[in-house]
Design goal:
298 residues, 21% helix, globular, 17% strand, 3-stranded antiparallel beta sheet
């Protein structure tokens, strides 16, 4: 785990919005883009409230604290890494939240991605909810590249959006600046972790509700330990690519396979425009790659 004292702060790229050439140049140079206040804080807060409502319903919040504090109930740890029945039930209910699936389509976010990618953009429906419980340091995500699990087009970008303010004790996400230029790297025995050399240019900053971090699928990044002592770190990850680029078939499924789409949509309006929104698009869908694959030539 890289110490935050070894990280430089993110460069705020908000002034580049509206200047496509400079925005794209910054993305090529750094492998990430950071925007202060790109999303309305109220829209992010709506997702946070919905996620916390589900978290409370599953008995994971402390009863002696305000729900907005996101304080974990003592002894409760829900994580995808152990896939307990309790976690699967919790994650299914999170995936049913329409407000969670709507935020990745926010016009401000889509506009920034279209400026970045230079043509029509679409968002993968396989969105991730991150609920990182305090002191579960063994589950902090190690250094990795998103291209390993996402596949499809290498020029796919992830948006990491905290559902609320994310200070140093809560951790957040750190990236290695310019690491995308190194290409697709071999992974360790866990089929995820990549090796990062000493002195790598790690960058990290505390984030506020509405801030957005974008990074390339080949950019090395990792979770930062949640050392808050009580609070759950809540965030979402969304993937974007050009409509004209190939996409891996698995990107069209529900994250972790906990539900199918009809189960997700069960309580949504039948004519909801978010239902199967990708079907009319002329996507180049490829068969899913093997779970474990190595870079060409390795």
């Amino acid at each position: 785990m890289v110490p935050l004292t070894a990280c430089s702060p993110f460069v705020d790229c908000s002034p580049l919005l509206g200047d496509r050439e400079r925005l794209q140049a910054a993305a090529r140079e750094r492998g990430y883009l950071f925007f202060r206040g790109l999303l309305p804080a109220a829209d992010v807060a709506a997702v946070r409230r919905a996620v916390l409502q589900v978290t409370a319903a599953h008995g994971a919040l402390a009863e002696d604290a305000a729900r907005e504090d996101a304080a974990a109930r003592t002894g409760v740890h829900l994580t995808e890494y152990d896939r307990t029945p309790e976690f699967v039930s919790y994650y299914r209910d999170l995936q049913r939240l329409r407000v969670f699936h709507a935020l990745p389509h926010h016009p401000r976010l889509m506009d920034a991605l279209e400026q970045l990618l230079g043509e029509a953009v679409w968002v993968h429906p396989r969105h991730i909810v991150h609920a990182i419980f305090p002191a579960d340091l063994q589950y902090t995500t190690p250094p990795h590249q998103d291209f390993q699990p996402v596949r499809g087009a290498p020029d796919t970008w992830t948006a990491w959006v905290p559902y609320g303010d994310c200070d140093a004790p809560l951790g957040g996400l750190a990236v290695v600046e310019r690491s995308h230029a190194g290409g697709w790297l071999a992974v360790g025995a866990d089929h995820e972790t990549v090796t990062v050399g000493d002195g790598a240019p790690w960058v990290w900053s505390p984030m506020q509700a509405g801030d957005v971090l974008l990074f390339h699928s080949l950019t090395i990044h990792q979770g930062v330990d949640n050392t808050s002592g009580a609070r759950i770190r809540l965030a979402g990850s969304f993937r974007y690519q050009r409509v004209s680029d190939p996409v891996d078939a698995a990107a069209l499924t529900v994250h972790l396979g906990v539900l199918d789409w009809e189960q997700v949509y069960a309580d949504w309006a039948p004519d909801d425009p978010l239902r199967y929104y990708w079907r009319p698009l002329p996507l180049q869908i490829q068969p899913s790659w093997p779970t474990v694959a190595k870079p060409d030539g390795d």
